[in-house]
Amino acid sequence: QATLRGSPSSSSRLLRRGFSSESTPDRKVAVLGAAGGIGQPLALLMKLNPFVSKLALYDIAGTPGVAADVSHINTRSEVAGYMGEEQLGKALEGSDVVIIPAGVPRKPGMTRDDLFNINAGIVKSLCTAIAKYCPNALVNMISNPVNSTVPIAAEIFKKAGTYDEKKLFGVTTLDVVRAKTFYAGKANVPVMEVNVPVVGGHAGITILPLFSQASPKANNLSDEDIKALTKRTQDGGTEVVEAKAGKGSATLSMAYAGAIFADACLKGLNGVPDVVECSFVQSSITELPFFASKVRLGKNGVEEVLGLGPLSDFEKQGLESLKPELKSSIEKGIMFANQS
Ligand code: NAI
After folding, report:
1. pTM of the model
2. Is 335 marked within a binding site?
3. What are phi and psi of 126, to 5 degrees?
4. Whole-Å CA distances, 293 to 122, 148, 233
5. Which residues are substrate-binding (predicted)?
6. Is residue 119 marked as binding?
7. What CA–CA distance (Å, rounded) separates 178 from 190?
């Protein structure tokens, strides 16, 4: 012991540890629905995130196994599993970021709106608990239909007196991830360099990728190519649902996208400058109360909702055609939260 204490390697380790805890604040992340198809790989990816110091994995069943498994990974965060409603409060207490992939996924032939009846109730009860146990957390809503579950969450938080529009996010990152991949493939540019904003909402035609703003620029894409890329991005989820043939929807790519978005939230909280991601948030950039667009993240969540930028005629048309559907999905969510 004595020799160890005095050894250069142990003191440099101590120094390093002191340095890292000063520069990287403690952050607790809770995943609700952590034993599911998205929840499990998302738990894994959050365990790999160096900004996370505590990782709470909550589900109605199965979390002890997921938590025991993930907890053996030798990264910074301490992992705990929580199962059943009576443990939800403990899972949420002290959370900085709460990620919600709880609920049922689509089967072939279903729209995201077909999930409303089950998922709306789940989201309502989880958000009621968030308002009680961690009202200041940033909420990353993955459960579909996002176009309605985000407005439901907002209404639940308003009723509880805890609503802060800067802290509620619909996760649309998978649409961005898909748009980038499909664009890179078609334009033949390196995928890791690609940026494409995706605006609107997260279902069918409400997903509007802005390929006119894509970078790097590609001069080899025709109007027909852009139309096809737009449609493929809008139908990307359905492509996976059909390929999985009844075994659910996107889980691995969604976990990746969810981890990217949560990482951006954590960076914002930690004061990293210029963190920008697309997200479905309370918005005044169109006449709709919620809208997905680029958002700058900061110490309090949303720092700035960025405008749409210049749109092509095709995108302008897409914007006008998505508004009625998005409006009615938002209203459906608000009505549900206030009826029940
Ligand atoms: P899954 O069925 O594999 O997992 C859902 C998990 O939620 C299950 O472990 C279940 O026990 C749990 N759960 C159910 N009720 C709960 C409650 N009250 N509290 C906590 N956990 C609860 O489903 P999967 O594939 O993980 O999808 C989850 C949700 O994510 C679905 O609503 C799906 O539509 C949505 N999704 C969203 C995407 C997006 O881009 N935002 C992309 C893909 C899926």
Report:
1. 0.94
2. no
3. -65, -40
4. 26, 17, 16
5. 106, 112, 144, 178
6. yes
7. 14
Closest CA to 50 of 254, 255, 270: 270
pLDDT of residue 340: 62
**pLDDT, tens digit, for every residue of 56-73?**
999 999 999 999 999 999
Distances (CA, A) of 60 to 75, 90, 95, 269, 286: 26, 14, 19, 29, 38
Residue 264 predicted with pLDDT over 50: yes
Mutate which of 31, 42, 59 for ligand 1 pocket (most atoms within 8 A of beta carbon): 59
Structure tokens at 17: 């540890």
Q: Say which residue the tokens 């919620």 belong to.
A: 290
72 catalytically annotated: no
* Token pair listed for 167: 């802290």
Question: How far apart (Å, rounded) are the C-alpha atoms in residues 97 and 166?
Answer: 13
Q: Which residues contact 112 (CB under 8 A, 6 or more apart)?
A: 106, 144, 145, 146, 147, 202, 203, 204, 237
Q: How far apart are the first and last CA of the chain?
A: 63
> How sure is the predictor about 18, in pLDDT bands with cuts at 50, 70 and 90?
very low
